[in-house]
Amino acid sequence: MQPFTIGVFSDDLYRAAGAVVQEDLSPCRIVLGVKEMPSEFFQKGVLYLFFSHTIKGQPHNMARLRALMDAQAHLLDYERIVDPNGRRLVLFGLFAELAGMVESLHAFGRRLAS
Questions:
Q1: Across the chain, what does the average pLDDT equal?
Q2: What sign results for the dihedral spanned by CA atoms 91, 86, 78, 37?
Q3: What is the side-by-side strand order in the sheet with 30-32?
Q4: How far is residue 7 CA from its own chain's centroid?
Q5: pLDDT, tens only, 37-53
Q6: What is the pLDDT of residues 18-75, one digit of tens each?
Q7: CB within 8 A of 71, min separation 6: which ones?
């Protein structure tokens, strides 16, 4: 895994559990993420799992999809993991939405205070 300084668990805890923590993920054949990954990140033949936000064809995300294709990488977009009725099975849900709202209000309050 890549180092992450703002996570709930420290990199040292991951190391203690046996994880390899390093910036370079080139030895990895599968890379899991949450949000969009930078276009220059993709490597040939690697499987990337993350919310790519490309399924709806948003213009600002098409460069990322093109970079994946140009790199001959593979994408498993969490948004396309659905049940037989087409309902998404991987999503942030209500608590993530509430946390986002609280963070937005907090940031707005800080901006007004300055």
A1: 88
A2: negative
A3: 30-32, 47-50, 74-77
A4: 14
A5: 888 889 999 999 988 88
A6: 999 999 998 999 998 888 888 888 999 999 998 888 888 888 889 999 999 999 999 9
A7: 42, 43, 44, 46
- The verdict on pTM exceeding 0.90 is no
User: Six-digit token pair at 26?
Assistant: 């080139």
Query: How long is the chain?
Result: 114
Structure tokens that stand for 109 in this block: 């309050």
Give the type of residue at 57.
G
Say whether 61 sits in a helix, a strand or coil. helix
Instruction: Measure the CA–CA gap between 61 and 2, rounded to whole angstroms.
Output: 23
**CA distances from residue 65 to 5, 36, 53 in whole angstroms, order as listed:** 28, 10, 9
Whole-angstrom Cα distance, residue 87 to residue 90? 9
Q: What tokens were used for 25?
A: 């993920």
